[in-house]
């Protein structure tokens, strides 16, 4: 396929799936978001009394065996279970019938920033307490970060492009973006893409607490994630999965699919600055946003809404605001911007995928979800972050940002057809 042809290929989103603290499916998730409901509470997965941060956005009442074969549920890590269920939701939502598809032309790219953390910790305890012969033969398949994509592909019979992406908190934005590129290149007709994470575990919490990266507002969990607020004190970890079905416009139209919107732009850059801190001049993120807009052939002033990375950390929120101002100029003050992490917590490698779902829904529903807990304005964060309550407005174009440790940046541009 020549490059000119591949550049003309348009990519659309036809299916959505979500498992999150505020809803185990897209409808419940979206209803919670627009109502401004927080999924953050005290951690119940383990005894957190000795930890500086004792709160998280857990997926409560989760019974994997209710959604998948019980034997498969036992063999797979929680992060893989989330991805499997969200992918099934997305494929069902897309009304994609694999019996009518060429499996060679359907691919899966699902990422995880950390992978099977729960498996690692559980099996390490078994090794120490009971010896090496008691370690599960399923340990390695359960913990590796590409297994979610592998299991989803086996379920679907999808033999096209398949790999895992790992880029910390930019992981699933990169996964969706690389699926977009695979479709534009002509490597597939359909891609199932997104991310999954289940890192609310003792070791992960110990590490993040030692970095002093997480909120310690333990006495008021639902007010702890407060992006862009002057009194923010760190992120709140969430867990879950977001998956989307991407198709070429031609393929979607040929099968009569319901189309949510077009995925029009994607870009990936690196700060090359610091292992955890964003570039204080916002250079890498600014470049990612500009390149994503260029791919979509949109001017900055044509964007209606930005789903911000907005982690509720002192550095990220300030420098993301700066980057937005650099790219959008005066239009930055006319943009609606919100961080849905204020309600979902930060899903690390799955953050970008559920935020892609949010972006799609804003276009479909004409409602922008709020940034809750934004009570005291930070002078360095002085844009319109849609505080407190959702906003009805016409949304034709959305930019979604994500940043990861290591300096990785990714941006997606979505637009109504």
From TrEMBL:
It catalyses: (9Z)-hexadecenoyl-[ACP] + malonyl-[ACP] + H(+) = 3-oxo-(11Z)-octadecenoyl-[ACP] + holo-[ACP] + CO2; a fatty acyl-[ACP] + malonyl-[ACP] + H(+) = a 3-oxoacyl-[ACP] + holo-[ACP] + CO2. The active site is at residue 169. NCBIfam families: fabF, PRK07314.1. GO terms for cellular component: cytosol. Involved in the type II fatty acid elongation cycle. Catalyzes the elongation of a wide range of acyl-ACP by the addition of two carbons from malonyl-ACP to an acyl acceptor. Can efficiently catalyze the conversion of palmitoleoyl-ACP (cis-hexadec-9-enoyl-ACP) to cis-vaccenoyl-ACP (cis-octadec-11-enoyl-ACP), an essential step in the thermal regulation of fatty acid composition. This is 3-oxoacyl-[acyl-carrier-protein] synthase 2. One of its GO terms (biological process) is fatty acid biosynthetic process. InterPro entries: 3-oxoacyl-ACP_synth-2, Beta-ketoacyl_synthase, Ketoacyl_synth_AS, Ketoacyl_synth_C, Ketoacyl_synth_N, PKS_Beta-ketoAc_synthase_dom, Thiolase-like. Pathway: Lipid metabolism; fatty acid biosynthesis. Keywords: Acyltransferase, Fatty acid biosynthesis, Fatty acid metabolism, Lipid biosynthesis, Lipid metabolism, Transferase. The lineage of its organism: Bacteria, Pseudomonadati, Verrucomicrobiota, Opitutia, Opitutales. Residues 8-416 form the Ketosynthase family 3 (KS3) domain. Belongs to the thiolase-like superfamily. Beta-ketoacyl-ACP synthases family. It comes from Horticoccus luteus. One of its GO terms (molecular function) is 3-oxoacyl-[acyl-carrier-protein] synthase activity. Its EC number is 2.3.1.179.
